[in-house]
Amino acid sequence: MIGGLFRSSTRDIPDVSQVPKHIAVIMDGNGRWARKRMLPRVAGHARGVEALRATVRGCVDRGVEYLTVFAFSSENWRRPQDEVSFLMQLFLKSLQKEIRRMHDNDMRFRVIGDLSKFDPRLVDMIREAETLTAGNGGLNFTVAANYGGRWDILDAMSRLMAREPGRLERFTEDEIASELSMSFAPEPDLFIRTGGEKRISNFLLWQLAYTELYFTDVLWPDFDDGALGQAIGSYQGRERRFGRTSEQLKADAGE
Ligand code: IPE
Ligand code: IPE
Ligand code: MG
């Protein structure tokens, strides 16, 4: 950390470790998983919670410090009303069920996204879970709900501009980064998207600048510890150059 902020990949060379410190996941493919089994789409979402539980465990076991998952995008409101309400109910029920366990496992739970459109009961429960786990030092587990990368950047910029209405100088990367909703975490080392699509879908746009991207056809409900191990294995085979040459990296490593 520098001056209370994590290193920005475009301004400094971040520390790179064997095990990714921060993994960000787009949990995609629930609907297709269910359809393949002639089940309603929502059955895939229910099974997706199991896969998430396994992924959390896998991250804890491997010493990953931050796990951030995309649960509901700002564009997912466009889905059929009954699917949206099912997802909200599932979020509420899963949270109710898991709060205690997360706390007992020393996890720190957070939600990022615009919660103003959510049922107040759900918002209360989220705040309660965040407060309960605020002092924990284990895995930082963050759920992105009604989150959009553009919303996040606009929100940060608006706050900065409101604070200094007459300001003429350019804002700095650090100023913007410190207002984003993931300001408490280093930028993701590894991004995983299941379900076969190769896109970012408005997830952490700013923070993914130098993240290693991993796409798998595995549908989210089938994503298990082995699949997580494969993703991390792929990450470990990458050379993270951050703009430098391979020769420079080898020289720095004293080879
Ligand atoms: C991801 O699975 C879960 C959410 C977006 C909430 P999908 O529901 O997008 O599954 P597919 O892509 O239709 O298979
Ligand atoms: C992205 O999945 C959002 C979540 C996983 C929550 P989608 O399935 O909604 O993404 P698109 O619309 O196909 O890009
Ligand atoms: Mg999808």
Automatic annotation (TrEMBL):
Cofactor: Mg(2+)
Keyword Magnesium (UniProt): yes
Gene Ontology terms describing biological process: polyprenol biosynthetic process
Record-listed Mg(2+) binding positions: D28, E212
Catalytic residues as annotated in Swiss-Prot or TrEMBL: D28, N76
Class in the EC hierarchy, top level: transferase
Position of the signal peptide: none
Residues holding substrate: 29-33, 41, 45, 73-75, 77, 79, 193, 199-201
Molecular-function annotations in GO: ditrans,polycis-undecaprenyl-diphosphate synthase [(2E,6E)-farnesyl-diphosphate specific] activity; magnesium ion binding
Keyword Transferase annotated: yes
CC per GO annotation: cytosol
Matching HAMAP family: ISPT (MF_01139)
Family: Belongs to the UPP synthase family.
Role: Catalyzes the condensation of isopentenyl diphosphate (IPP) with allylic pyrophosphates generating different type of terpenoids.
Subunit annotation: Homodimer.
Protein name listed in UniProt: Isoprenyl transferase
Protein's organism: Thauera aminoaromatica S2
Taxonomic lineage from the root: Bacteria, Pseudomonadati, Pseudomonadota, Betaproteobacteria, Rhodocyclales
